[in-house]
């Protein structure tokens, strides 16, 4: 009989955990890197209030250059908090915009009737800076009232995505790559020739990776709470169930991706082919509203997007079981389908 | 009392991969406690045969019985508990210690810590119990791999080129372990490229080529029967007299070279032929300028049977990987 005894599963899980804890690179990429990403990207707006931008004060002649230098030392320029001004020749503006040195330029800011703005209107951050600075320089009365709600910061937007990507990476590299490597090393073949049950093997892969994922998530959540005060506003149990479903989806995908090849280079290509598009269209770093509506509808059903959106709903929007039921079902369904397909074509050697 | 069922009994085995017949109507019998070395070039079908014996591949035709049981029978998977398998160049989990690896594989057989530690001692790695496998030497790793095969106290050991790439000392350590298992009554099927390994571990060898067994038997008998004899080459100052070789014992073949001043002989037994040849040349006054001899090898045997060199013969790639 094939052995699926608890001892088999326990030893296979221990193997997964030991591999995880004894490989410094794994620890860095699963724990250190997401923490550093959160720390770095959280700074974008995690602690700041208002606009931050580099803005060029343009001049077209030596006389205007002198006027610009004088204006930069004056109170109007100093009053624009978060703005880094610099004098730039008008002819040099295209290059300064292209290299990101400045976000927009303004000609004669001291002379409202003749003031002129230069920027790419397709650049949303330049558009935002233009409106903000125009109001500031014209001394328009404030017609807005700041409304800061939990979950509205960039770090609140970012963290659910990082957690989801952590699961994607953990499964596809931790399981998919591992399967390919074990096949290449002929370990799978050696194990298949013992009474070990393949079901126990896959079960242990899932359970072992679930434990490491729990560890990763706990560390990242604790870090974000400590540094940025990020909290789970909705149902914690619904969130846990959602992540379990996400884990199941990416586990199934990992088994499918790693089901046949025994060549490391092919494996790397396959995993990158799956993960990189996921990073782009998952809405982790920017919202899906940046895509055309027709694509948005399709992208919303991608496993990482489902997980990211539902996680945001619970973490930042205070959602509960009712909000995650559909994404959970979809993730579990996709995971099961991928797993069954992967097992159907799985090659042990 | 009836004879015990043989460790391996395969009849009419055929395995095809599309147009390639990897194993072709092959019969093989290995009694309990017997040892057989399977020799053949890459692509001869050895691995496919072994995988069918392990139950990892099903034959297209023919039958396999291990200890009287077939892989097709219900509950036949218990046969795995009686198999010890050691693969060539298996890279063990790098970040596990020697003891952890044995614990892992012991668990697959439903065995515990005690058996893992016992085997660790048997393969002489007690002091390396806490060492990651990636820090073991090649010989130590292969002993550990053999330890994995020893865990279930196998009745049949299937070793696939277990010492390839090892230095002579490490190779002998592995041989010693295999010998110990054989003494306990374990049957052995060994695939190898090393003739001396085959001879050291197995009283019988079988030559495999393009999916078929060409010959099987003790090495001396096979060489005597199929290798075309030992070789004796000699050169003389002048062409030797015609009757020089008339009384040479066991002369199988004679070729004259260089206008008759050199001869190349094939003899049944060099030990008997060489003194007689030297004595005969001296009596005839034939002055020898050079003399060289070489015992027949399994390579000669293979060449004689197939017209191809053992090391160079390459059949089309054998078993495509199927699970």
Radius of gyration of chain B: 24 Å
Strand content of chain A: 5-15%
Beta fraction of chain B? 25-35%
Oligomer: heterodimer
Secondary structure class of chain A reads alpha/beta
DSSP helix fraction of chain B: 25-40%
Order of helices and strands of chain A: HHEHHEHEEHHHHHHHHH
What would you report as the Rg of chain A, rounded to the nearest angstrom? 26 Å
What summary fits the major beta sheet of chain A? 4 strands, mixed
Kindly describe this structure.
- The complex is a heterodimer of chains A (349) and B (323).
- In chain A, β3 (104-107) and β4 form a beta hairpin.
- Helices cover 64% and strands 6% of the residues of chain A.
- Chain A has helices at 6-22, 24-42, 62-72, 75-78, 93-98, 124-137, 154-184, 187-192, 198-228, 236-257, 264-281, 293-299, 303-315, 321-344; strands spanning 53-59, 83-89, 104-107, 116-118.
- Chain A starts with 5 loop residues before the first helix and ends in a 5-residue tail after the last helix.
- Chain A has 14 helices and 4 strands.
- Chain A is of the alpha/beta class and 349 residues long.
- In chain A, strands 2-1-3-4 form a 4-stranded mixed β-sheet.
- Chain B is α/β, with parallel strands linked by helices and 323 residues long.
- Chain B contains 9 helices and 13 strands.
- Chain B has helices at residues 46-53, 98-108, 113-122, 138-150, 168-183, 195-201, 219-226, 270-284, 298-306; strands at 8-17, 20-30, 35-39, 61-65, 83-86, 156-160, 187-192, 204-209, 212-217, 230-236, 251-257, 262-267, 288-294.
- Chain B has a 6-stranded mixed β-sheet with strand order 5-6-7-3-8-9, sandwiched between helices. Chain B has a 4-stranded antiparallel β-sheet with strand order 11-12-10-13, covered by helices on one side.
- In chain B, β8 and β9 form a beta hairpin.
- Chain B is elongated, with a radius of gyration of 24 Å.
- Chain B starts with 7 loop residues before the first strand and ends in a 17-residue tail after the last helix.
- In chain B, 41% of the residues are buried.
- Residues 313-323 of chain B have low confidence and may be disordered.
- The chains are: A alpha/beta (349), B alpha/beta (323).
- The interface between A and B is medium-sized, with 31 and 32 residues.
């Amino acid at each position: 009989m094939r052995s699926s005894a608890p001892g088999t599963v326990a030893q296979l899980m221990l193997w997964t955990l030991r591999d995880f804890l004894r490989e410094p690179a794994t620890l860095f990429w699963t724990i250190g890197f997401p923490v550093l990403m959160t720390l770095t990207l959280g700074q974008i707006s995690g602690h700041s209030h208002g606009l931050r931008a580099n803005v060029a004060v343009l001049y077209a002649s030596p006389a205007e250059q002198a006027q610009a230098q004088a204006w930069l030392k004056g109170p109007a320029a100093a009053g624009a908090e978060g703005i880094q001004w610099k004098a730039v020749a008008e002819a040099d503006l295209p290059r300064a915009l292209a290299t990101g040195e400045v976000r927009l330029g303004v000609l004669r800011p001291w002379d409202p009737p003749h003031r002129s703005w230069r920027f790419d209107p397709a650049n949303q951050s330049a558009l935002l800076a233009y409106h903000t600075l125009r109001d500031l320089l014209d001394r328009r009365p404030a017609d807005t009232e700041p409304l800061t709600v939990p979950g509205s910061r960039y770090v609140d937007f970012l963290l659910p995505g990082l957690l989801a990507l952590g699961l994607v990476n953990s499964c596809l590299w931790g399981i998919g790559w591992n399967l390919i490597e074990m096949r290449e090393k002929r370990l799978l073949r050696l194990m298949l020739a013992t009474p070990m049950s393949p079901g126990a093997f896959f079960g242990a892969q899932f359970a072992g990776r679930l434990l490491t994922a729990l560890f990763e998530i706990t560390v990242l959540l604790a870090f974000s709470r400590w540094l940025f005060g990020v909290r789970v506003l909705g149902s914690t149990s619904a969130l846990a169930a959602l992540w379990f479903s996400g884990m199941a989806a990416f586990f199934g995908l990992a088994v499918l991706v790693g089901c046949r090849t025994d060549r490391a280079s092919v494996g790397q290509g396959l995993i990158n082919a799956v993960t990189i598009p996921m990073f782009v269209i998952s809405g982790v770093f920017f919202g899906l509203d940046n895509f055309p509506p027709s694509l948005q509808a399709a992208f919303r059903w991608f496993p990482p997007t489902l997980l990211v959106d539902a996680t945001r709903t619970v973490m930042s929007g205070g959602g509960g079981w009712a909000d995650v039921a559909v994404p959970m079902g979809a993730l579990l369904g996709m995971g099961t389908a991928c797993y069954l397909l992967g097992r159907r074509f799985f090659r042990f050697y | 009392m009836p004879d015990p069922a043989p460790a391996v009994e395969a009849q009419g085995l055929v395995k095809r991969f599309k147009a390639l017949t990897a194993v072709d109507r092959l019969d093989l019998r290995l009694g309990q406690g017997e040892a057989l070395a399977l020799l053949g070039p890459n692509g001869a079908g050895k691995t496919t045969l072994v995988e069918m014996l392990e139950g990892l591949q099903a034959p297209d035709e023919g039958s396999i019985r291990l200890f009287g049981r077939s892989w097709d029978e219900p509950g036949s998977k218990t046969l795995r508990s009686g198999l010890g398998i050691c693969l060539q160049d298996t890279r063990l989990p790098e970040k596990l210690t020697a003891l952890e690896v044995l614990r892992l594989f012991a668990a697959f057989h439903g065995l515990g810590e005690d058996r893992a530690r016992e085997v660790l001692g048997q393969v002489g790695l007690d002091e390396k119990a806490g060492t990651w496998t990636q820090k073991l030497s090649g010989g130590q790793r292969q002993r550990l791999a053999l330890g994995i095969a020893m865990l279930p106290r196998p009745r049949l050991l299937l070793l696939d080129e277990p010492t390839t790439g090892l230095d002579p000392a490490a190779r002998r350590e592995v041989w010693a372990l295999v010998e110990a298992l054989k003494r306990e009554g374990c049957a052995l099927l060994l695939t190898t490229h090393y003739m001396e390994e085959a001879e050291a571990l197995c009283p019988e060898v079988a030559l495999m080529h393009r999916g078929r067994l060409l010959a099987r038997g003790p090495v001396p008998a096979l060489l005597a029967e199929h290798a075309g004899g030992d070789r004796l080459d000699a050169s003389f100052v002048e062409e030797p007299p015609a009757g020089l070789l008339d009384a040479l014992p066991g002369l199988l073949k004679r070729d004259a070279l260089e206008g008759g001043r050199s001869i190349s002989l094939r003899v049944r037994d060099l030990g008997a032929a060489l003194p007689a040849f030297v004595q005969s040349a001296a009596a005839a006054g034939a002055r020898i300028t050079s003399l060289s001899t070489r015992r027949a090898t399994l390579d000669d045997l293979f060449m004689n049977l197939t017209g191809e060199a053992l090391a160079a013969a390459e059949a089309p790639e054998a078993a495509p990987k199927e699970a």
